[in-house]
Amino acid sequence: MTGLTHFDAEGAAHMVDVSAKADSKRVAVATGWVKMSTETLAIIESGTAAKGDVIGVARLAGIMGAKRTSDLIPLCHPLPIAKVAVELEADDALPGLRVTATVATTGKTGVEMEALTAVSTACLTVYDMAKAVQKDMEIGGLRLLSKTGGKSGDWKAPAP
Amino acid sequence: MTGLTHFDAEGAAHMVDVSAKADSKRVAVATGWVKMSTETLAIIESGTAAKGDVIGVARLAGIMGAKRTSDLIPLCHPLPIAKVAVELEADDALPGLRVTATVATTGKTGVEMEALTAVSTACLTVYDMAKAVQKDMEIGGLRLLSKTGGKSGDWKAPAP
Amino acid sequence: MTGLTHFDAEGAAHMVDVSAKADSKRVAVATGWVKMSTETLAIIESGTAAKGDVIGVARLAGIMGAKRTSDLIPLCHPLPIAKVAVELEADDALPGLRVTATVATTGKTGVEMEALTAVSTACLTVYDMAKAVQKDMEIGGLRLLSKTGGKSGDWKAPAP
Amino acid sequence: MTGLTHFDAEGAAHMVDVSAKADSKRVAVATGWVKMSTETLAIIESGTAAKGDVIGVARLAGIMGAKRTSDLIPLCHPLPIAKVAVELEADDALPGLRVTATVATTGKTGVEMEALTAVSTACLTVYDMAKAVQKDMEIGGLRLLSKTGGKSGDWKAPAP
Amino acid sequence: MTGLTHFDAEGAAHMVDVSAKADSKRVAVATGWVKMSTETLAIIESGTAAKGDVIGVARLAGIMGAKRTSDLIPLCHPLPIAKVAVELEADDALPGLRVTATVATTGKTGVEMEALTAVSTACLTVYDMAKAVQKDMEIGGLRLLSKTGGKSGDWKAPAP
Amino acid sequence: MTGLTHFDAEGAAHMVDVSAKADSKRVAVATGWVKMSTETLAIIESGTAAKGDVIGVARLAGIMGAKRTSDLIPLCHPLPIAKVAVELEADDALPGLRVTATVATTGKTGVEMEALTAVSTACLTVYDMAKAVQKDMEIGGLRLLSKTGGKSGDWKAPAP
């Protein structure tokens, strides 16, 4: 047994049967960052305060991206997403933007992929909007912070 | 002037006018990785050889993800994508999988976002398929390697 | 407090958490119209009776549009829509077509946006199909007629 | 002859053949409004200045909606949209928000439907975000202001 | 009465109201085939074993296609799909590939269309991947094998 | 060499590079049928004439389905479709409905898959609308009739 539940006994990919699972409240939190130069970060921060709201656009893209998760990830179940919140904050030490997404549902499977897709889409949108001033930004640190609910129980990421 | 071309003079987000640009061949290459334990990597590698083709599924998800780029990234132009290739290879030193995507078009804007979205979608799909055995995998190193074509000319990432 | 529930305390847009709400039957009815010349209306009416069913195409577009609501409206929850009906009828006094959409679900949030999106998509489709004969048609009167169900209770539009 | 080009000689709906048309620059401008109480407008205006950027969210929704036009309108051709700009401004006399969208392409058919869909989606999004404070807002005045380019030439709306 | 439930008493198409139905477990199984030359089948079979996994790609396309059913079929309800499995096997007697899809949900309507759409999408994908070597392949035998659950009860296809 | 162009030399699936191909007019015609009982066909035919236009709904679904082809078929290029026509006609000998779709583009690749997807979506929609009266309908005979244009030249199906 490989433990890869997305494949059946013959190794064929399938969407796992969750029809017998009970609906329960599930929450997942994921994070990631976009690393950039101090100059690019300053442009984004000044823009947000006045003109050119990179952070507002990226937040909305992340929220909408969460709703497209089952379209993008082949074996992901479509889910009635009940909440999406995406935060972006400047981190001068990175330097860059740190993104955190929280997704909740009352359903039969978890929303880990929805939270990760929200973060990823928000980071890609930041890259898109700032690439005219810096092309060598890097997206990284994309990982699950926690999940709660469901049969497998709660999980919290170890300190990085 | 902030240099953020996705905002107009009043700071309002817009999709930049490219109608006067000539169609030209454009190629972009992006990369990224999924870091995991040696055990998870071994499961994926054995699965690909025999049963449970994680890499094949992730490659296809990356290709299809490139086609959804303008749906996901708010200010991205829809483009007639002419080529998408996504490579995944195991790297024991990471340990994990390294992903590289090459996207080409003959169009009025570049395909940097399509290449980055392909890599990001492939990485997320790897995470989805292996999360039953390891939840603390990390996605990172997502960046543009090169772009060619278009008025702004060719660009190559500096050595990391 | 602004009362705008789609923003959190810091003013950031978010998709409101409805995971704690109970599933209940909810119905929304919306209306709108396309105003056109008497000649255009006559063409549409004769077409529907014989050849060129503008009303049939617009009705179907409205039904399918309701299913795309959460894709289009950034902070709208995806919902398992249980019913969509779209009616179009000629109004010689307008002159033009009046559109009414009824949407129902058993879910955690209302279907006001689904009903309004159905009407809007049907009206846009009428415009598309008749614009070869008249470009200065106008779409208007798009508003909610009633909603029932949910914690906030029933609501009925005041007489216009 | 009815003049309804979206139907063939037998009255069957079809997507008109534009393959023989030359690519040319085409621009369309459309407008519409959301009528609301003075109180709701004040909340939106104060929100935009400080917290809760209804106008920013609606603008982005309008831009993204333009890209979904051929998904929503059954007989509309998919087009490589080259530009989308959506403006929203408060009008105390309405009272409410006036929305204007400008869409451009270099293609074989016009972008009237894309401009109208952008306005419609932005208006629906305003409704969604403000409906917690006022349910009887009305969307109207949705019409084409002008189109340029293409074989049928330029067109400008008569004064309303 | 025609018995066509997708039309109301006036003959207008509508999405049938299922809001009063109870959620129950429902399963549907559908099948179909792609007929091809012995040579084409041999190429596909050798490819799957070594290079060029036509069957793996088609299986994934079928699974993802099931999730797009309510986007494609106008009057189909969106459903929280709980399971999709798609099998493809070579049949030397056909000669060609036989496809079977099983879809499950816990919902208010059946998943017959989802199972048929999965089979259809998998067959079309096989055609796409092999059309460079044979253009006159044929897709056929697409039918429902069984459905279980729901008020109308279980159904099993008669022997063909 | 297998001749399967959707795989590279290592057997990995990719979207073939068409960026160097010239834009040219391309047309594809595909066909298929839905076999049903004489009673079901009679219901559909009477419905179309008076109430319940199954054929009109299926035609529109086929046209819209053609536009979703590159979303559904993993390695299919997105294309600016220039024309879609879908015909359905009753065949008492089948008995059932015969569907023919014609798709045209001016682009870098052919529209065979778009024509086949249009037929398939129209057939599935007929099944959906009539399944309340007959569940054992069968979809078959889905094949390419002809293609013209492109480097590989014209092709016409042999007589069946």
Automatic annotation (TrEMBL), chains A, B, C, D, E, F:
<dbReference type="InterPro" id="IPR002820">
    <property type="entry name" value="Mopterin_CF_biosynth-C_dom"/>
</dbReference>
<feature type="binding site">
    <location>
        <begin position="75"/>
        <end position="77"/>
    </location>
    <ligand>
        <name>substrate</name>
    </ligand>
</feature>
<dbReference type="InterPro" id="IPR050105">
    <property type="entry name" value="MoCo_biosynth_MoaA/MoaC"/>
</dbReference>
<dbReference type="GO" id="GO:0061799">
    <property type="term" value="F:cyclic pyranopterin monophosphate synthase activity"/>
</dbReference>
<comment type="pathway">
    <text>Cofactor biosynthesis; molybdopterin biosynthesis.</text>
</comment>
<protein>
    <recommendedName>
        <fullName>Cyclic pyranopterin monophosphate synthase</fullName>
        <ecNumber>4.6.1.17</ecNumber>
    </recommendedName>
</protein>
<feature type="domain" description="Molybdopterin cofactor biosynthesis C (MoaC)">
    <location>
        <begin position="15"/>
        <end position="150"/>
    </location>
</feature>
<comment type="function">
    <text>Catalyzes the conversion of (8S)-3',8-cyclo-7,8-dihydroguanosine 5'-triphosphate to cyclic pyranopterin monophosphate (cPMP).</text>
</comment>
<feature type="binding site">
    <location>
        <begin position="113"/>
        <end position="114"/>
    </location>
    <ligand>
        <name>substrate</name>
    </ligand>
</feature>
<keyword id="KW-0456">Lyase</keyword>
<dbReference type="InterPro" id="IPR036522">
    <property type="entry name" value="MoaC_sf"/>
</dbReference>
<dbReference type="GO" id="GO:0006777">
    <property type="term" value="P:Mo-molybdopterin cofactor biosynthetic process"/>
</dbReference>
<dbReference type="InterPro" id="IPR023045">
    <property type="entry name" value="MoaC"/>
</dbReference>
<feature type="active site">
    <location>
        <position position="128"/>
    </location>
</feature>
<comment type="similarity">
    <text>Belongs to the MoaC family.</text>
</comment>
<keyword id="KW-0501">Molybdenum cofactor biosynthesis</keyword>
<comment type="subunit">
    <text>Homohexamer; trimer of dimers.</text>
</comment>
<dbReference type="InterPro" id="IPR047594">
    <property type="entry name" value="MoaC_bact/euk"/>
</dbReference>
<dbReference type="Pfam" id="PF01967">
    <property type="entry name" value="MoaC"/>
</dbReference>
